[in-house]
Design the sequence.
């Protein structure tokens, strides 16, 4: 069975003090209302990984990097390697967020190498896929997601794939306030699960966590998390505020099954 997950992507937001306050609030919440079947993840900017890892003591709370290099080490100014992410205390890494693909031009080929490098170092990747608005309008969204999944996962074995968390994040819903309807999200999650079943096995399809991302907030999370193929959320804006992040954790604990 897949892990149920509430993950917060801080992007390039929050300073050290604000980051510490947010993690302390999540720790306090988890101590008062322990969660039993969901995992909580925070993805701070790289320079906060050490602090965030040191503050995240609850066994249900772990830390993800937002990105990492595909190379092992060397002359790559400005990059952070998988072993550095690990050394900083993080357990996961987001790979292929649409902002990395679109703004920084990260290609499918590069992302596959990043996924490989993450697994080599024992990091769990959160692999993001998602279509643009024009792809959806032209009814190309299923083909696009299939292409991204194929490019990222084709060289992995059925034993490796369950270590990868998939996040379906329609680009038109990220940071726009416009979320996919629960039907649209479920339809794509079910498509992704079927793809995993066909390419790998029914057991793999059952085991891989598929998160939804795109303007998830406490007021729309119940409907989304109640869908059978949605295993949780990758949350940007609403993860920056302790009250909304902890209420998303609470909704996840109540609704995700
Ligand atoms: C994200 O950053 O992955 C995201 C989904 O952002 P938001 O929740 O703000 O749309």
Sequence:
């Amino acid at each position: 069975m897949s892990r149920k997950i509430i993950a917060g992507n801080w992007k390039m937001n929050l300073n050290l003090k604000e980051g510490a306050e947010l993690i302390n609030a999540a720790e306090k919440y988890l101590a008062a209302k322990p969660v039993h079947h969901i995992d909580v993840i925070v993805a701070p900017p790289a320079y906060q990984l050490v602090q965030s890892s040191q503050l995240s003591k609850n066994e249900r709370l772990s830390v993800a990097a937002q990105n990492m290099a595909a190379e092992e080490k060397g002359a790559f100014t400005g990059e952070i390697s998988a072993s550095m992410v690990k050394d900083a205390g993080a357990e996961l890494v987001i790979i292929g967020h649409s902002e990395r693909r679109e703004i920084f031009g990260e290609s499918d080929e590069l992302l596959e190498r990043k996924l490989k490098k993450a697994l080599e170092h024992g990091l769990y990747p959160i692999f993001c896929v998602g279509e643009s608005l024009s792809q959806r309008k032209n009814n190309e969204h299923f083909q696009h997601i299939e292409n991204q999944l194929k490019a990222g996962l084709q060289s992995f074995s059925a034993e490796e794939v369950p270590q990868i968390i998939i996040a379906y994040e329609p680009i038109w819903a990220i940071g726009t306030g416009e979320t996919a309807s629960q039907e649209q999200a479920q339809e794509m999650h079910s498509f992704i699960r079927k793809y995993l079943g066909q390419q790998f096995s029914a057991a793999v399809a059952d085991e891989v966590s598929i998160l939804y991302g795109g303007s998830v907030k406490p007021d729309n999370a119940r409907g989304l998390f109640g869908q059978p193929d949605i295993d949780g959320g990758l949350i940007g804006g609403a993860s920056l505020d302790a009250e909304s992040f902890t209420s998303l954790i609470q909704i996840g604990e109540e609704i995700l099954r």
Summary: The chain has a mean pLDDT of 97.
